[in-house]
Amino acid sequence: MKPLAEIVWQRLTGLMPGELKKAELPWLATPFQHLSLLANRRATMIVNRVRLFAFLFAVLTPMWIVVDFLVFASPLWWQLALMRVLASAAFASLVLFYQPRGNLLDAYRAMALLFLIPTLFYVASYNLMGAHELAGLSAAVSSGYAFLPFVLLAGLAIFPLTLIENLILASPILIAQIVVAGLRWPHLDLPAFIGTFWLLVLITGVSALAGMSQLAFMIALVRQATRDPLTGVFSRSSGEEMLELQFILASRSGAPLAVAFVDLDHFKSINDHYGHEAGDKVLIAMTRNIQACLRRGDMLTRWGGEEFLLIMPNTDLEQAVQALARLREHGLGARPEGAPVTASIGVAERLGDALDDWRMLVELADHRMYYAKQHGRNQVCAALPDGQDPLVKAA
C-alpha cells in the first residue's frame, strides 16, 4: 500500500502533467521558496497587469456618471460622481506612477492599492445609497453596484499568484461584503445574502485555481529558460542575472559575496578519446557531485563548455576556500578510464578584493583560475603573487 501522502502528490501532479516537478508543487501554495529569478519576473508581470487593470478601471469608472445622472436625484448623483472621479484619479495614478521594479513586496503593494480603491468605493457607495429611498429604475441601477465584488474577485484570475496570496487578497473583499450586509442589517434579505456570499467564495476558488495554473506555467517556463538542458544547473544568462542581483543585495547590506570559477582539467581529451557522449556523462556527474555539497543559497551556473561558476552569497574568501576544500574532498566524479575528475578553480570575493562590479568579480576569478591551470592544475587559487592581480591592484 502506498502512503496517503504519496497518492495525494501523484494526483496533484497528474492535474498538471509535464508542467511541474514534485519539488515545485509547494511553490503553488506559498511564495517563500521561490527562486529569486522567478520572484523578480513574477513581480514584474504582476505590476504590469495591475497597471493594465487600473487603466481599464480609470477609463470605465467615470463613464458610469452619465447613468447615475439619468437615474438618481441630486445630491445622490453628484456625490457618486465625485466618488467616481476620485477613484478614477487613483487608478490613473497607479498607471502613471507605478513602474515594475522586479520587487515582490512592491508588487504586493500595487495589488493592495488596486483592490483597495474599488473596495472602499463599494462600501462607501452602498452606505450612501442606503441612506436614500430608491424605487423603480433607480433601485434597479443601484443593485448593479452589488456586482463590483464579483468583478474584483474574478479579476484575481489574471495574476500568477500562490494559494495564500489569493486568499489574502480576496479576504478584504469578502469582509467588505459582510460589512455592507451589516450596514443594511434591518433590511437585509438573509437567504439572498448567504447565496451571494457563497457565490463570491466560489468565484474566489475559481480565481485561485486560475492564478495557480498561471503560476505553474510560469514556474515551468522560467525553469526551462534558466536551466542548462544538459546538466540542469543554471544557464549562463540566468547566472549573470542572479549574480547581478546578488551583487546589488550584497552592496546594499555590506555583505560578502564570493564566486568560484571552475574549469575541468583535460576535459578535451575525454571528448577526443571517448566521444562527446562520455564527456556529457562526466559533466552531468560532476554537477551532481557539486550540487550535493552546495550550502543553502549557493548557486551553480554553467558558464560555457566545461566551465562553471559557483556563486556563494554571504561568504568571505576564507569561507569560500573552506567550502571548495570540502567539495574537492568529496570529489567531482570519475573520468571514463577511472581516474578522478579534477578542476582548476579561481576564487574572488567582493569585499576582500575590493571590487565594485560583478563583472570584475567574475573576471578576477577567471584570471585566478587560469593561474591555477598554468601552475599545475587540480588546485584552488584565491590570490596571485604580488603584482600579478591587476584588478585588485587597480581597486
UniProtKB/TrEMBL annotation:
It catalyses: 2 GTP = 3',3'-c-di-GMP + 2 diphosphate. One of its GO terms (molecular function) is diguanylate cyclase activity. Residues 255-385 form the GGDEF domain. InterPro entries: Diguanylate_Cyclase (IPR050469), GGDEF_dom (IPR000160), Nucleotide_cyclase (IPR029787), Rev_trsase/Diguanyl_cyclase (IPR043128). It is an enzyme of class 2 (transferase). It comes from the Bacteria. Its EC number is 2.7.7.65. The chain crosses the membrane at residues 50-71, 77-98, 110-129, 135-159, 197-222. The keyword Ribonucleoprotein does not apply. Keywords: Membrane, Transmembrane, Transmembrane helix. This is diguanylate cyclase.
